[in-house]
Specification:
The chain is α/β, with parallel strands linked by helices. The protein is 38% helix and 21% strand. The protein contains 9 helices and 11 strands. The strands form 3 sheets. A 7-stranded mixed sheet has the order 2-1-3-4-7-8-9. A hairpin with a 2-residue loop joins strand 1 and strand 2. Helix 5 packs parallel to helix 6 and helix 6 packs across helix 8. The chain is globular. The two termini are 15 Å apart.
Length: 258
């Protein structure tokens, strides 16, 4: 449910090549989910022509049996709620992904790398959690919450949300369940962290609280990575007790047994 194409500024993957890869692996559906981040209601460098994106997928659908699904990865920004909703409501997306890429307008990717002390890292982790809860309270026009502990990928030492912030993590997971949203298992993190996002302890807590909606997303930016580490993630999910993963068509959830 989370694959990038050349419409994202950090990917060069052609959609035709992604289709060929999907056909080779006998995939029935293929999501294309490109970056769209706003800041203070304005475009950023993570912006693309959605109309052109939709037209290209519609044209390519005519030459493949793989069902091409339109998705978008929206970066949360509290000062951009109006344009975020307008974007989602103006195009025929099958799914909408919500990500925390910035904290109060500052990129997590760049700021996390500059931290030195454990206290600074813990402060950033708490701010990410506060922003995530704020997002769930102010923007519900999405389907899947992506790479929940994405920040850990970039901090200099691997300090996790749990066990340090169990109360805030539980509050977020309970809100996700209340809103009937889906939690992404982002397998890109296996390359850097040896586990997926979110950390296993979070998945275990989510399941314990009654959460069952999870999706698999490779977050691939290269053609050959589009299903990377799925088998490891499925094994983990089964061990915890999950029996299904979810995907969306026309913003409606569907399940697939694992």
């Amino acid at each position: 449910t989370h694959i990038h194409s050349y419409f994202s500024p950090d990917s060069e993957s052609k959609i035709e090549d992604l289709i060929l890869e999907a056909e080779k692996h006998e995939c029935a559906i293929l999501y294309i989910s490109d970056h769209m981040d706003y800041l203070n209601g304005e475009k950023t460098n993570s912006y693309y022509d959605i109309q052109a994106f939709c037209l290209e997928l519609d044209a390519l659908q005519k030459i493949t049996d793989v069902k091409l699904l339109k998705s978008i990865e929206l970066g949360y920004d509290k000062k951009s709620l109006e344009i975020m909703n307008e974007t989602v409501n103006s195009y025929p997306f099958d799914s909408v992904l919500l990500s925390m890429h910035r904290i109060e307008g500052i990129s997590i990717f760049s700021s996390a790398r500059e931290l030195e002390s454990d206290a600074e890292i813990l402060e950033l982790l708490e701010r990410v959690l506060d922003t995530t809860l704020d997002a769930l309270e102010n923007f519900t026009n999405f389907d899947i919450l992506t790479h929940f502990d994405y920040v850990v990928r970039y901090i200099p030492r691997k300090i996790w949300f749990l066990p340090h912030f169990s109360v805030k993590v539980e509050a977020i997971l309970r809100k996700m369940i209340e809103l009937d949203k889906c939690l992404e298992i982002n397998t890109k993190a296996y390359e850097d962290l040896g586990v997926a996002h979110p950390q296993p302890m979070i998945l275990e807590l989510y399941f314990k609280l009654g959460g069952r909606k999870v999706s698999l997303g490779s977050d691939s930016h290269k053609v050959h990575d589009f299903q990377r580490n799925f088998s490891e993630a499925i094994t983990l999910l089964q061990k915890i007790g999950f029996t299904e993963v979810y995907y969306y068509i026309n913003r409606t959830a569907h399940s697939q047994k694992i």
